[in-house]
Amino acid sequence: MRRLVTVGMCGAALAAALTAPAQAHGPDEGKPPHWELKDSGTNVRFRGLSAVSRNTAWLAGSKGTVLRTSDGGVSWRNVSPPGAAELEFRDVEAFDGRRAVVLAIGEGEASRVFRTEDGGATWTESFRNTDAKAFYDCLTFFDRRHGLAMSDPVDGKFRILSTSDGGRSWKVLPSDGMPAAQEGEAGFAASGQCLVSSGPRDVWLATGGAARARVLHSSDRGLTWKVTDTPIPAGDPARGVFALAFRDRTHGIAVGGDYRADQASPRAAAVSGDSGRTWTPAATPPPAYRSGVTWLPHSRSAALAVGPTGTDLTTDGGRTWRTLDTGSYDTVDCTPDLACWASGEKGRVARLER
Questions:
Q1: Degrees to nearest 5, angle at CA 36 with 30 and 40
Q2: CA 170: distance to chain centroid?
Q3: Order of strands, edge to edge, in the sheet holding 239-246?
Q4: pTM, to two decimals
């Protein structure tokens, strides 16, 4: 979901600061922009992240854990839903500091959706999957009311769940407009970014695990879809597109590769300038598998990608990438007031400081 505010520093300026030589920053100018770790007080893995502002962010992770900060990560409040310790939260979409929706993944009834309207003081379970063949991976919202969640293929097609009341209730959409899935094709619940939206109606779904890594696009909130092959490596259950980011309904970036640490990931990023109808491999891709990606706010050309071996920056719309940091992160998200957050294994969470 996109939130618009006026800021004093544009994304292009932040990108320039990120790429400036270290020696250009004198003793009076402080350090160049860098990730600053925040103490989450836990060691669970946070693959779900929703950044609201420089001060407010939500984390969703293993062991049914949901955390929220309202002071820029100085302190974190454990707002986990009661009785959820056996669940794996992999995605969170927050509207503000009080309202958020979280997705638990897994086979059958392990896939659930929870919603809070009071900052996590109380939660309502608004969906519990009862189909043993379904496995939900990601969710996204177009606005405060309309959102979708996606499941791995059921009876040969990806399944789409829809809400029109902010996540209070959900219904499975008809599958007539969904193309057939490849054998072994699925989504990766690695960063909460295998299903992303931009604007009031456009949504994209990333796939892997099959012969070809593909991106599906819908311009009518999930009723009908068109599918396109990408150049990101495929042909193995561990390979494919892991995350997508669209800065508008036209310009997108896909990242992924092979998540196994002992396997190379050439062509780990691709770009699209036509709403995902075609994809071009990055000329200089990230050096390894990447699981999360986000555009820098108010920028037409800068984006960050993260993975277990580091963070990379592009300043040319995804065509070339440069490594900025070698710390491990699973997902990344930026806000209109130019705050970028990242989270991952062992309770890691950081905010980009400048």
A1: 150
A2: 21
A3: 239-246, 252-258, 269-272, 280-281
A4: 0.93
